[in-house]
Q: What sequence folds into this?
């Protein structure tokens, strides 16, 4: 294959995987504390519209990213109040958050449907970007791509090397034990949930501000759900999130390339578009066959409400 | 050896008028007690007397509604466990507060202030564990540890902070008799060094052996203080429950009849990575006898019960024979059809559905007794059944329409036991029949089991309470690390021997007898 | 200081009152939203909640919209009671609609009642097949049914898009992505000449009745409720978890497929890319607001249908996007989940301790 095509496929794969990394790592932290928030789709949608609208009005994409983050935090705060303070069922509340976020973003976004944002330029890292094939793909990228790598490194360190990370894992395994030795399990779960929301918002803003860059109703198109599936697939380990996200990025990109290449392949475009969703199902099946790995790594208290006795 | 030699007479801990009220129950009412330096102070009371709540208040896990706590003469309000630890109070929980997916050092680090260096901490742990005879490997994941080892981790975790007061909540319920003796040595060593110990228990003999002073609680109130060495178990029991300990009537040995349960080299790899695998389990239970299985918790009891009940069937049908039918692959429902009844350890959520009424809970297993008609539920029949169960088994409740979770542990246990017995099983498997049950209900339940045996039912009881097994069993066996010992007639063994066996050492012990009883 | 205190026993009263509280909170939220958008709240309320049902035709439209919601919600409730989380009803509806359309187009220009009967069967089977995928993967590999059923929604949307752009496209339709219009034998009979309400409404009421008997009178329904309340108790009693997963997913899928049939053979009269109007997701909310109870589902479906109609009215008269319906729906469910806390807890006012 032509090396320039290879390079651009690699480039596009990394871009497509980036929002998944950011969102999935955020969810990973929330889930490590024992909170299962199925509302990622809704939080991403809100992050996308908030990011888009603010970027459009301010002309500053970084304000847009911050707005997306704020929207994600706000959404996850609603969720946190309902499941942590009011002890509602996490599965149902996550669904509600998704429905609310998707609906609300469509509602807010209606006036923005015909707008387009200017493309944000890439940041080129000198020397490294001159490497053949991988140079452009890895080192001439959007700032948020670099951010996703920093996030990965930071979260890996946080979880396995820092004391707050140790406390987080402890709360996720047994909030009642953590409570009995004096940790404020609910507060820690709040923080983790809000972090998950913030990252979902950033991931959403990445889509509408950097990736497309425009706003269409339903533009998140299942990425929030895929990110949740990715955390399961990764069995709650950051490195596997990274690998998985690029795998999915690759699946999304290859179908775009095939569709755009003008190659005479007799496959309806809808079948190619369905690939990421089918791939999600396949990886879920593969990982769920290995129940031992899942059980050894899954946060034990995931999805269970906790209330300390007064 | 006690505080007499101490110059300073200020008590280490004083409680005055401590009261704690929960919406449905008064957990503690006007409780006062005083603990001296180097004193081992027992807090004695039966299940639900309010001992654990009182300790949680001292340790800052919950707060008192009224009353005053003095620490070394100063009034304090313990804000949280970290505050308690900084004062010098350590606590070893009954249901441990350890994290299974973390290793020993990480677990210990979580309870220490600041950000200790894990490598240094590992050395400290080894040092303390050597000094007090509490062997444990700092690098191991907690889920790989035995229950006894976990308790050692909890104790070490407290000792690393040089506590002045150590609270032990029912520490011996998970130990073999030999391990209990070792623990007592450690506690005495600590007390000699000046550490005060609050020892929570409902076991009278242990308290007599270990404690200098005892405070007795009943229904949340102090019913008396005493010096255990000057009392008899009888006199302490009457302080604890308000009357003498009831002892069930055992009609002595009778000739057991046909074999109702036979396990043939039952093996089962655990599905749970934290679980115990069963290895070549052989036993039989015959009509008209109670076989007791002793063991320290976590040695395969859960797995054995799941396999016996059919909740997790095994591959080899012949490895479990119920009333002559190979049943290894059968589901619980089919096994009930073969004549088995089963009372699980967890009453709420397994033996009964917490949110459902007693009537609906009767339907759970009684549906096969003519309660259905073409797939539809016959509500009048099931209501009659539930009422009979409530009446015959003396279940105290508001009525059959009340939810299972509104009953006390003892009454719910009587209901579940009654439900299974009314279905006239030929074989009854019971796990922890009196766990967390008040003394009255426990006596009632034990008597029911003995009566059932006298009527010819085969009964298998798995319990962690050795005393209970010695009270009701005809024969007794031990489960350790997923293997089972030969069963011995009660008359041919004693608590000491069974205690040794509980650590898995029956092969070496007395091979001659093993052959004789196999 | 406010604090929550556990009730000694769950409050029956609150479990019925909590959906009403949620509705009231949603209305308040709606009024605030109208005010925030610079609309007169009273006017907005009138347009949204009163106008759609101010005449008999409006009421018939309400029942028409409520029909697929009732069908799907009662099917989903069967599974939800056992904690079988089928959230892919949207996709199952689409596939049911496709299957029913295939029958209608196969019998194009022929006559007979068998066409409709076959369409009903095909619709239900189509939905069940789509739901059978997560059921199979869950029972065989323990794969999370939430994620699988949801992924299949996207796949179903792409599938119908392909079909109406290709194999099932109307040959005389100027390349519009839609099928032929069905002929009368493939359309559900109307209940009256005055409006569009059709026989599907009767089917929905029937489904609610059957659902009621199944849930509250049959042993199988009891087993599913036990599994939902306490999984270990169901296993202890020997109820087959796999069987419940199958029943739960197939009932939801079958009913969603039937709803898809009732849409293509009802108000739409053809297959398009927009078979569903988010009914599959709205029905989840219906099921929850109804406490998974068929009687409740009847009323909750009417409420949800009103939100749909209100959204259309708001678009027409208030110049607001119709997606405002989804905002109301999301709010309703969120408020419900939040106010459910009072079933097991009560509020205590407590002075801060000195």
A:
């Amino acid at each position: 294959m032509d090396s320039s095509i290879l390079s651009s496929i690699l480039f596009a794969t990394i871009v497509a995987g980036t929002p998944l990394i950011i969102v999935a790592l955020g969810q990973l932290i929330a889930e490590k504390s024992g909170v299962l928030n199925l509302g990622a789709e809704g939080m991403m949608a809100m992050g996308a519209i908030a990011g888009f609208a603010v970027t459009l009005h301010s002309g500053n994409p970084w304000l847009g990213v911050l707005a997306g983050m704020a929207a994600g935090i706000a959404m996850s705060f609603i969720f946190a109040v309902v499941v942590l303070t009011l002890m509602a069922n996490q599965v149902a509340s996550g669904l509600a958050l998704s429905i609310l976020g998707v609906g609300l973003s469509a509602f807010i976004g209606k006036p923005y449907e015909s707008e387009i944002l200017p493309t944000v330029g890439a940041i080129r890292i000198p020397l490294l970007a001159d490497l053949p094939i991988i140079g452009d793909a890895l080192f001439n990228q959007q700032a948020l791509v670099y951010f996703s790598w920093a996030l990965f490194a930071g979260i890996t360190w946080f979880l396995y090397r820092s004391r707050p990370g140790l406390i987080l894992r402890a709360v996720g395994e047994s909030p009642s034990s953590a409570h009995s030795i004096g940790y404020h399990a609910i507060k820690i779960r709040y923080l983790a949930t809000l972090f998950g929301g913030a990252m979902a918002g950033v991931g959403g803003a990445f889509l509408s501000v950097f990736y497309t860059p425009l706003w269409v109703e339903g533009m998140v198109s299942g990425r929030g759900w895929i990110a949740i599936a990715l955390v399961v697939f990764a069995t709650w380990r950051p490195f596997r999130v990274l690998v998985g996200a690029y795998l999915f990025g690759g699946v999304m990109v290859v179908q775009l390339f095939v569709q755009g290449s003008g190659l005479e392949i007799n496959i309806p475009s809808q079948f190619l578009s369905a690939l990421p969703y089918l791939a999600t199902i396949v990886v879920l099946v593969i990982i769920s066959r290995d129940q031992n790995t899942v059980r050894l790594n899954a946060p034990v208290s995931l999805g269970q409400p906790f209330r300390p006795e007064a | 050896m006690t505080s007499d030699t101490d110059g300073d007479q200020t008590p280490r801990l004083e409680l005055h008028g401590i009261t704690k009220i929960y919406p449905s129950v008064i957990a503690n009412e006007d409780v006062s007690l005083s603990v001296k330096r180097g004193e081992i102070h027992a807090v004695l009371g039966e299940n639900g007397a309010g001992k654990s709540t009182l300790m949680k208040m001292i340790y800052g896990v919950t707060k008192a509604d009224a009353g005053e706590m003095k620490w070394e003469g100063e009034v304090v309000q313990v804000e949280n466990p970290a505050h308690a630890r900084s004062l010098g109070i350590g606590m070893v929980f009954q249901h441990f507060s350890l994290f299974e997916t973390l290793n020993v050092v990480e677990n210990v680090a979580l309870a220490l202030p600041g950000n200790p260096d894990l490598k240094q901490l590992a050395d400290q742990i080894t040092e303390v564990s050597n000094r007090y005879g509490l062997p444990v490997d700092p690098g191991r994941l907690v889920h790989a540890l035995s229950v006894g080892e976990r308790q050692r981790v909890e104790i070490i975790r407290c000792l690393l902070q040089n506590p002045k007061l150590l609270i032990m909540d029912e520490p011996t319920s998970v130990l073999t008799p030999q391990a209990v003796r070792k623990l007592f040595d450690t506690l005495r060593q600590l007390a000699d060094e000046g550490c005060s110990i609050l020892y929570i228990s409902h076991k009278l003999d242990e308290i007599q052996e270990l404690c200098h002073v005892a405070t007795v609680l009943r229904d949340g109130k102090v019913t008396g203080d005493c010096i255990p060495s000057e009392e008899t178990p009888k006199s302490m029991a009457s302080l604890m429950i308000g009357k003498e300990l009831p002892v069930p009537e055992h009609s002595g040995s009778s000739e057991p009849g046909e074999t109702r349960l036979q396990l043939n080299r039952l093996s089962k790899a655990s599905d749970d990575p934290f679980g115990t695998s069963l290895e070549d389990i052989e036993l039989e239970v015959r009509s008209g006898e109670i076989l007791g299985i002793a063991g320290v918790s976590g040695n395969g009891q859960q797995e054995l019960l799941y396999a016996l009940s059919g909740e997790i069937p095994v591959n080899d049908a012949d490895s479990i024979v119920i009333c002559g039918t190979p049943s290894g692959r059968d589901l619980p429902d089919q096994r009930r059809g073969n004549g088995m009844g089963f009372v699980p350890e967890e009453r709420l959520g397994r033996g009964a559905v917490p949110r459902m009424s007693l009537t609906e809970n009767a339907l759970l297993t009684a549906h096969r007794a003519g309660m259905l008609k073409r797939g539809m539920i016959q509500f009048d029949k099931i209501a009659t059944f539930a009422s009979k169960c409530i009446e015959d088994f003396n279940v105290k409740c508001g009525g059959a329409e009340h939810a299972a979770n509104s009953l006390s542990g003892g009454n719910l246990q009587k209901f579940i036991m009654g439900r299974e017995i009314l279905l006239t099983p030929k074989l009854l498997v019971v796990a922890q029949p009196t766990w967390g049950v008040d003394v009255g209900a426990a006596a009632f339940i034990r008597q029911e089991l003995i009566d059932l045996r006298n009527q010819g039912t085969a009964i298998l009881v798995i319990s962690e309470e050795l005393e209970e097994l010695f009270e009701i069993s005809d024969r007794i066996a031990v489960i350790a690390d997923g293997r089972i010992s030969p069963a011995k007639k009660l008359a041919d063994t004693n608590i000491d021997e069974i205690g040794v066996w509980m650590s898995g050492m029956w092969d070496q012990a007395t091979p001659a007898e093993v052959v004789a009883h196999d | 200081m406010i604090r929550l205190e556990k009730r000694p026993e769950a409050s029956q009263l609150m479990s019925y009152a909590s959906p009403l509280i949620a509705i009231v909170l949603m209305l308040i939220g709606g009024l605030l939203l109208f005010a925030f958008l610079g609309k007169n709240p009273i006017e907005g309320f009138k347009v949204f909640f009163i106008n759609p049902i101010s005449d008999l035709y409006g009421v018939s439209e309400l029942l028409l919209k409520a029909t697929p919601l009732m069908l799907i919600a009662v099917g989903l409730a069967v599974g939800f009671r056992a904690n079988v989380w089928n959230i892919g009803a949207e996709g199952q509806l689409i596939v049911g609609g496709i299957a029913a359309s295939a029958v209608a187009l196969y019998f194009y220009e022929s006559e007979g009642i068998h066409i409709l009967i076959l369409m009903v069967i095909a619709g239900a089977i189509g939905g069940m097949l789509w739901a059978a995928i997560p059921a199979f993967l869950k029972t065989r590999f323990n794969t999370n049914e939430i994620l699988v059923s949801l992924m299949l929604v996207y796949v179903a949307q792409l599938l119908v898009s392909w079909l109406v752009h290709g194999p099932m496209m109307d040959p005389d339709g100027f390349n519009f992505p839609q099928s032929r219009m069905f002929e009368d034998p493939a359309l559900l009979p109307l209940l009256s000449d005055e409006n569009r309400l059709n026989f599907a409404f009767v089917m929905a009421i029937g489904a609610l009745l059957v659902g009621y008997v199944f849930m509250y009178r049959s042993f199988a329904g009891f087993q599913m409720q036990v599994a939902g309340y306490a999984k270990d108790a169901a296993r202890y009693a020997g109820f087959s978890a796999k069987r419940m997963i199958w029943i739960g997913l197939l009932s939801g899928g079958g009913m969603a497929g039937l709803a898809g049939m009732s849409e293509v053979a009802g108000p739409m009269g053809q297959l398009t890319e927009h078979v569903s109007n988010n009914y599959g997701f709205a029905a989840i909310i219906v099921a929850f607001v109804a406490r998974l109870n068929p009687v409740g589902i009847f009323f909750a479906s009417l409420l949800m249908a009103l939100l749909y109609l209100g959204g259309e009215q708001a678009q027409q008269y208030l110049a607001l996007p119709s997606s405002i319906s989804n905002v109301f729906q999301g709010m309703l469910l969120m408020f419900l989940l939040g106010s459910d806390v009072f079933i097991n807890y009560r509020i205590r006012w407590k002075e801060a301790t000195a």
